Amino acid sequence: MGQMIRFGLVLGVICLVATLVLAAVHEVTKPKIEEQARIEREAALKEVSPGADTFKAETADDIEYYEAYKGGELTGYCLKLMARGYGGYIHMVAGIDKDGVITGVRILEHAETPGLGSKMTEVKPGEEDPWFLRQFVGKSAASIEVKKNIDAITGATISSRVVTDAVREGADKLMKKLGK
Amino acid sequence: MRITGELVKGLWRENPTFRMMLGLCPTLAVSTSVVNGLGMGISATFVLVGSSAMVSMVRNVVPEKVRIPCFIVIIATFVTIVELMMKAYTPLLSRSLGIYVPLIVVNCVVLGRAEAFASKKGVWRSVLDALGMGMGFTWALCVISAIREVAGNGTIFGYPVGVSFSPPLFMILAPGALLTIGLLIGLINHLSLREDGRR
After folding, report:
1. Which of B52, B100, B153, B161 is most exposed by smallest CB count within 10 Å?
2. Given CB atoms, is B62 within the 8 Å cutoff of chain A?
3. What is the arithmetic mean of pLDDT over B108-112?
4. Which of B85, B92, B170, B180 is the best mutation test for A, with the most CBs of A within 10 A?
5. Domain segments of chain A as ranges
């Protein structure tokens, strides 16, 4: 009995110390991590809406989006999208202009198969942006479809289709909401 | 054993991947490209050294019967600290390694060394042992992922290898990892058998 209490005490003390250390580290790093996430989100918005300088967060029903402004003038929209991929949820942002033409797509987070689905964010050496996502730029959001005008990633048809469908359907929903 | 022996044994004679067959799960999962393999190896080495040092420090206070939960708490704490620090201060590194860092908690190389070595030896020996094991794990991962990346994707470090061929997809998937690891272990066993025969 006395032994059991000793075991419990040692384990308890170790857990307590671990909790305190983690709480301290969490407190110190939390603002920095939030700041990094904000910088990253902002950079992603700027990438999918080239030229825009200010973004205003908006929601319409269940759609979360940003209005993109350039010098005070509305130039387009950035959509926050989430879709169920092959390995988990894929979080992305897609930029469209006022007529529904895609200006850019970026993946924020994904858990697709390394070496296959993960290639959707692959940047080939000597290039600046992922080749898979570049295909979307300049196409009308309503028209995109895998194997029609979007080349799927070899061995990752599901991931490719999920991203393409999410952008098309998301843009479609927003356009209808805005009455266009 | 001499103190340098603790460092070098992990590289070959007691290599965690090829000799002790430890940490095969993360090895299967991340050895799809050299960059991933190298990243996983370096982060695992970091956690190994840190947790081995801590386990060695508390080894005389922790009762035998509850040592495993104690070690796991120490390892998990260390991994979480590394993860939070990376997210806050090196966002670029965290972006490329982010998903692999939490995997280190369940890497049995780390718990294996805590149990078999750090819980019985002094702090400095434990740190050297952990460093050697970490480097052994890293080079093993690099070799396996280099073979898989060249054969399954036609690239190395993301650059095309020159000859163009249609890469067999299975090399990037789990069967390719099992085949590669099996063939490498066979080769290494063959080499050391010949070495023993000569002696």
Report:
1. B161
2. yes
3. 91
4. B85
5. 46-177
